[in-house]
Amino acid sequence: MSAEQKMKKCKFCGKSLPEEAIFCYYCHRELLTRPERPSSGVESKPVNWMVVGVIAVIVLVIIAVVLLGS
Ligand SMILES: [Zn+2]
């Protein structure tokens, strides 16, 4: 087991915390300073169901027109 885990210090109480900690384990304050890390693009975007619905309706209309028109 490597002890080379990146640590940061709580700016409120000065205790060592893991880099990923979003709040202090000791004083339970939120650590708003984020470590600068390149975004790996794993952001979960909410699906825009309105757009999905509109596209679905358009596709259905096109299919209906093609089927009825032939
Ligand atoms: Zn703290």
What does the model show?
With 70 residues, the chain is α+β, with helices and mostly antiparallel strands. The chain is built from 1 helix and 2 strands, in the order ββα. It has one helix spanning 49-69; strands at 7-9, 16-18. The chain starts with 6 loop residues before the first strand and ends with a helix. The structure holds zinc ion. Residues 10, 12-13, 15, 24, 26-27, 29 line the site of zinc ion.
Radius of gyration: 25 Å
* Beta-strand percentage range: 5-15%
Number of helices: 1
Provide the structure class: alpha+beta
List of distinct ligands in this structure? zinc ion
If strands are numbered along the chain, what order do they take across the biggest sheet?
Answer: 1-2
- Main β-sheet: number of strands, strand sense, barrel status? 2 strands, antiparallel
Rounded mean pLDDT is 85
Q: Which parts are unreliable, with pLDDT below 50 for 5 consecutive residues or more? A: none
The total beta strand count reads 2
Q: How far is it from the N-terminal to the C-terminal residue, by CA?
A: 69 Å
Helix content: 25-40%
The 3D shape can be described as rod-shaped
Task: Sketch the topology as an H/E string, one letter per element.
Answer: EEH
